[in-house]
Design brief:
Two copies of one chain form a homodimer. Chain A has 275 residues and is an alpha/beta fold. In chain A, 28% of the residues lie in helices and 31% in strands.
Chain lengths: 275, 275
């Protein structure tokens, strides 16, 4: 069927996925929610026109977002996921037997409800008694100092509209204030080739907040440019995560090699961050 | 300007770049050649509708294709580039002061002429007295046993039409036969998420031909899925390349970290290759 979904996050690039079925569409109080069945990539979540995840390639994003900080900590007890209403990061976080509570602070209750209905692989995670869903603005929630958390993952949309505040030095400060002393956080932090100025600015802010900030990059074929980066925030180096065993369950992307490799940055970008 | 170039290599995915100017278009005896100025990515070469390189992001591809095998060898004297009529791989190869001859075996003389005219950054490489351009089919050329070469880079288009033969066990055998005993070769080898079956098949063939086959992956934002892989063929392990100094000149992508990281494969794909 020659029906195509078109995504355009940057003014210079569009990505099209071939659509087999429009599964669900609605306008929630916060955003446009679209669930598609696409050729090859399978079921796909789109928010405000931007691809959030596909069945085929989401494992790299979610495993690397959750396990990189969680393995630094080793045996996390309390975790926070900012955004993440699709439940995919939650599935990864719940793999830690040490975990006692994970708060998911998602603005849009409809994202949670829609994904529970249409993404069965992530749906049952919400039934775990360790999960606490808070449907409100993460900025306001963090200002109330709900920490300490051992692990924080900011699984945000892109810096447009309301989410723009989630790409600020102040948001990073709130994240770091909510971390336990040996905790580790990561925030979704865009694409080195396309967003170098924003990333460099946030990296500078991170340097003022923690002892071991770092930037890492994960291949995700359906994201613009084929991948996405994360800002790592901790007073412990990410290399500590290489010493700890993986939680029970299968990895599709993460292994000791990809864990280390994610922090290897192209020379032009390494120089930009170090300068 | 709302003019877009659309690429579709796979049935399920399209990539669009915003066009600022159509610089050159022609149909050569072998293929359609298109040179565009695109927003953000700059000057772009398109062959038979498929993006070959952009000014902005080609360094990762060419540095990693040339230096990974060349650094294994250390001080290569004789090299072969299969395809590569744009001259970008040639620029990287010529950085080795040890190099005495580099043969570029490119089928389509028009690609060389068009790129010399419109890609000034790569054009002057052809004036180097060490370069020998042979405009003919690489398969036929290799059957005449023109080796030994210390380094071979198969900078091919995708396995469609005439280039399909360049993704066969027989082509890999011809490459390996043309290598000097301590030489190293790489062949362009597609995308792990999209082309796992083809890659696995070629990797199996490589295992029967050399002691240290390997697969590595490089981020290239304008390629479908945001990157491309290479099959490494040598009786010396790629890690040997980490011991040798870089040739004179600047790297935009390669550093010791990205060199190593390229060989770190997502767990699902590592398993597929090992099984």
């Amino acid at each position: 069927m020659n029906v195509w979904f078109t995504e355009q996050l940057h003014p210079f690039l569009r990505v099209n996925l071939r659509v087999e079925r429009i599964v669900h569409e609605e306008r929630s109080p916060y955003q446009h929610i679209l669930v598609l069945d696409t050729a090859f990539f399978g079921r796909t979540l789109v928010l405000d026109g931007i691809i959030q995840l596909t069945e085929l390639d989401n494992a790299g994003y979610h495993e690397m977002m959750v396990h990189v900080p969680a393995l630094t900590v080793g045996a996390p007890k309390r975790a926070l996921i900012v955004g993440g209403g699709d439940g995919a990061a939650l599935v990864q976080m719940l793999r830690y037997p040490s975990l006692e509570e994970v708060v998911v602070c998602e603005l849009d209750a409809r994202v949670v409800e829609v994904c529970r209905a249409y993404f069965p692989a992530f749906a049952r995670a919400w039934d775990d008694p360790r999960v606490r869903l808070i449907t409100r603005d993460a900025f306001a929630y963090l200002e109330e100092q709900p920490g300490p958390f051992d692990v924080i993952c900011a699984d945000t949309t892109d810096p447009i509209g309301m989410a723009e505040r989630l790409f600020s030095a102040e948001f990073l400060r709130l994240i770091v204030c909510a971390l336990s002393p040996n905790g580790a956080a990561v925030t979704q932090c865009e694409q080195p080739y396309f967003d170098a100025a924003l990333i460099t600015q946030l990296y500078r802010a991170a340097q003022a907040l923690v002892r071991h900030p770092a930037y890492y990059y994960v291949a995700v074929p359906t994201y613009p440019g084929g991948g996405i980066g994360f800002l790592y925030l901790s007073n412990q180096p990410w290399e500590k995560g290489l010493e700890h065993p993986y939680p029970p369950g299968e990895n599709a992307y993460l292994n000791p090699q990809t864990h280390r490799a994610a922090f290897a940055l192209p020379e032009f970008f390494r120089k930009a961050l170090q300068s």
